[in-house]
Amino acid sequence: MFFDHLVLGATGEFLNIGDIIATLVIFLLLMALLKKFAWGPLMGVMQQREDLIASEIETAEKSRQESQQMLDEQRSLLKDARNQAQEIVENAKKQGEVSREEIITTARAESARMKESAVAEIANEREKAIAAVREEVVALTLLAATKVLDKEISEEDNRQLINETIAKAGEVQ
Amino acid sequence: MDHGAPMLEVFGIWFNLSNVMMLLVAALIVFLIAFFATRNLKLKPTGMQNFMEWVMDFVKGIIKSNMDWRDGGRFHVLGITLLMFIFVSNMLGLPFAVVVNGDLWWKSPTADPVVTMTLAATIIILSHYYGIKLKGLKGYSSDFLKPMPFLFPLKIIEEFANTLTLGLRLYGNIYAGEILLTLLAGLASASIFGFVGAILPMMAWQGFSIFIGAIQAFIFVMLTMVYLSHKVSEDH
């Protein structure tokens, strides 16, 4: 018949067990060989890659965290430094203010003292000079008067004249 | 087209030599492809390694869509080997068929019901084996009473139906493809007009057969994983 060969086992009135055995053996052998020579190594490499990627991701994550931490640290350090600098400047300013005040006060006091002493000295010197001049004048005048007006002038006139002269001399001076 | 088969009896066991030869050819091709594709493996894959990794991921996806990878990982090698072996087998019969002295020598090994049924039965037996191994005899047998105890006879029938459909689907698709190719080849060799007339349908059918071959390989692996997961997974 035309369709005879479509019937299962149409190749004979027997079951070809040999084909079954051959199929099984060949397939199982192929599977074992492939596992040993192809799939095994390939799976190993794929697993290796998976591990590598996982570890890379982990490392990246870790280093990211580390750098974040460092950044935070640096930021806080910078903030501290800024605060400190601010403080230093402030302190210096304050210090400067204080020492300025001090210096000014000292200088003022010093100058006042110097002025005072100078004035006192000047007055002193003047007193001294006036006294000396007065003495000198008296002596000179006495000398001159005795020489010029020897007898004419009485004791009283003489004294009066001297005093007048002295007064005049003091005015001139 | 009603060819005979080169039969050989060894110790009372009958071998269809063309089946044996074609199985060996398919296995050799698969092995060579896989072997040379996985030389010089690198972490940064190139060329054929990419392809093989794609195949592995493809099968991994099939398994993962059916069961937990913790259970299914052990079937990875089986899945990849099945997929490539069946695909290559399906392709073998496409370019030509060789008939020597009325015996059909060169064909797809999967165009023989014995071969496909052997594969299917192996899968089903494997599923039972892993069912018992992973869930214990108690868990394994209680699965036959789920979801309702009165469905037990259906469950038994299902096992045989699964085996039959798994094997015969592959066989039928590939065998039908080969028959039509043989018919078209007969038409092409009949006369010059027949040749001209046969070119277009031949090309179309060969293209379609490539598609069918790929799809059938995929379906076989997919169903393998489905049946395995039925036996292996806890919640199904």
Secondary structure topology:
The complex is a heterodimer of chains A (173) and B (236).
Chain A: H1 17-148, H2 155-172
Helix pairs in contact in A: 1-2
Chain B: E1 7-10, E2 13-16, H1 17-37, H2 47-66, H3 69-72, H4 76-92, E3 98-100, E4 103-106, H5 113-142, H6 152-190, H7 192-232
Antiparallel strand pairs in B: 1-2, 3-4
Family (chain A): Belongs to the ATPase B chain family.
Subcellular location (chain A): Cell membrane; Endomembrane system
Keywords (chain A): ATP synthesis, Cell membrane, CF(0), Coiled coil, Hydrogen ion transport, Ion transport, Membrane, Transmembrane, Transmembrane helix, Transport
Keywords:
heterodimer, A: 173 residues, mainly alpha, 87% helix, rod-shaped, B: 236 residues, two-stranded antiparallel sheet, 7 helices, 4 strands, 73% helix, globular
Percent range for helical residues of chain A? over 70%
Radius of gyration of chain B: 21 Å
* Number of domain units of chain A: 1
Largest sheet of chain B: 2 strands, antiparallel
- Largest sheet, strands/sense/barrel of chain A: none
Shape of chain B: globular
Overall pLDDT of chain B = 82
Number of helices of chain A: 2
Percent of residues in helices of chain B comes to over 70%
The low-pLDDT segments of chain B are none
The SSE string of chain A, one letter per element, is HH
Counting helices, strands and paired strands, the structural category of chain B is: mainly alpha
What assembly state would you assign to the polypeptide chains in this entry?
Answer: heterodimer
Roughly how many Å is the radius of gyration of chain A?
65 Å
